[in-house]
Amino acid sequence: MIVSPSSRRLRVFGSVAILTLIATYIHVRSQWDEASFGYARDYYKSVTSYFGSSVYNNTLYSEGNEEMVDQYYNSSNPCANFPDTDGILLVMKTGATETFDKMPVHLLTTMTCLPDFLIFSDMEQQVGPYHIHDALAEFDESAKAHNADFDLYRDQKECPVSQKSCVDAKRDGQKAWNLDKYKFLPMMEQTWRMRPGRDWYIFAEADTYIFWANIVHWLKNESRLNPREKLYLGSRSFIGGTPFAHGGSGYILSGTLLKHLIEYHPGVVKQYNVKGAHECCGDLMLAQALEEYEKVKIRQVWPMINGEKPSTLPYGPGHWCEPIFTMHHMNAEEISNVWQFEQTRKTDRVLLIRDIYDGLIRPKMQVSRENWDNLSDDVCYLNPDPEAQQRADGHSRDRQKKGEDMNDIEKEAWKSWENCAKVCESQDVPDEEEWDIRGITSRENEPSTANDTEVAEDTSPSDAAAREAWKKAMNEKKRNRSCFQYRWHDEVCCTAKSFKLGAPKMPPDNGDSKAKWVSGWHLKGINDWIDAMGECKKPAWKTPEP
């Protein structure tokens, strides 16, 4: 069949038209899909990215600690660098009034990496899959019945709803404290019964943070302590002349000591349960029991076992190159931050106290803060007026410097925070670049009556040997600095021999300028001291003192 040219053109035109319509449909449909469901696809991608990723911005990363921590926080394998705790058991003590405030952060951080641990309280509770044991469950009923210290214990058990609905932690804080002292000895007995045979038992409170890498390394490699000996280690405190390991700082018992105390003296727990009504503190009673029955006293491990936290640690002499094992009075946010710091450090070397300062505190240091207490209280300067002396607190009066020992700057220090700041400034020494500018001249021809430091200061820096001697003398002065910061309030100026961050203070209600709190840090002096100290060549491990 012969097709005419006109028919052929019509068929071609029709085919083109159909193809054009199909292409147009596909194009329009794709745009419509994008407009209608694009937002959903974007949302899906963002959600899957959030749940699929374990790398986040490191919220601790800031100007001043870039060399210490990574910019990003990879949380995919938090236990990768956690030490082997075989033979070591953590026993943590809490209270029913605080369990759900303080325990979850531990269970989300360090305790996720522990293969085993025990938690004791004054009430049996459950936090997710974790069981809290009642340390007082076996306490003699007759001893509890007529003891007002157990009122809170009974109230907790009768609460038909959550403990926070029944018990006000602030209002009932003293009741919780009174009850707490009875947990210590029963906790020892239950711990040995449930987890016997460990080399070391580390006891801590719910507001205690433990640096596991440090403490495990020390126990297994550095301490040279034998867990088969009867050992009781901690931060030593005293009450009535009796030394004991401060419970909040944490303490360590060797397995042998715990075994002997519980297996060889079955009456010790019952005896001290009764004695508790006449004693202030459970950690004191534990020390008394260990001395009475085992003739064992605490061996000092401070400042490695420590009762302070990052914002209250007294950085400086004695708190610098020492490794850190524990910190106390840590709230949930602080515990999480320190865990994050450990997780994001750029090195796995032993963590020293100076690392806590460099990583967490130094970025927050500034010249001064109003409505702030940086805990300066080593030396105080008060208005000599008798009325002002009476108004000052007893601690400040006890720490004030005698008038005959004060220089002119110190005599004026109480008048204002500006005057107070000058006390630390007066201890400055010139930097090396200032030597020639100050025109230090030689006095070689003058009779020498000064000490070596003064001679070095007055010797011309143009002479290489004298210049080196001068530099050495200045560095020595920097290392021996005794004023790093100040606090001024109500005509009381106090300075500190260490540097701490501290905490906010409520501003005065009446707007009285004398009543406000002003804290300041002499950053030049702090940095001079750090520079003069140099790098910590090796960790300053402490040998337990008898």
Euclidean distance between termini CA atoms: 119 Å
By CATH reckoning, the class of the largest domain would read Alpha Beta
| Tally of discrete structural domains | 2
Give the rounded overall mean pLDDT. 88
The CATH topology of the largest domain is: Spore Coat Polysaccharide Biosynthesis Protein SpsA, Chain A
Largest sheet: 8 strands, mixed
Query: What is the alpha-carbon Rg in Å?
Result: 33 Å
Q: Which oligomeric state applies? A: single chain
How much beta, percentage-wise?
5-15%
- What is the structural class? alpha+beta
What is the name of the CATH architecture of the largest domain?
Alpha-Beta Complex
Amount of helix: 25-40%
- Uncertain residue segments: 34-41, 43-50, 439-453
CA-based shape? globular
List the strand order in the largest sheet. Answer: 5-6-4-3-7-12-9-13
How many strands appear in the DSSP assignment?
A: 21
Tally of DSSP helical segments: 20
Question: What can you see in these coordinates?
Answer:
- There is one protein chain.
- With 546 residues, the protein is an alpha+beta fold.
- The protein has 20 helices and 21 strands.
- Helix 18 (452-458) packs across helix 19.
- Residues 34-41, 43-50 and 439-453 have low confidence and may be disordered.
Using brief descriptors, characterize the structure shown:
single chain; 546 residues; alpha+beta; Spore Coat Polysaccharide Biosynthesis Protein SpsA, Chain A; 8-stranded mixed β-sheet; 5-stranded antiparallel β-sheet; 20 helices; 21 strands; 40% helix; 14% strand; Glycosyltransferase family 31 protein; membrane; transmembrane; C1GALT1/C1GALT1_chp1
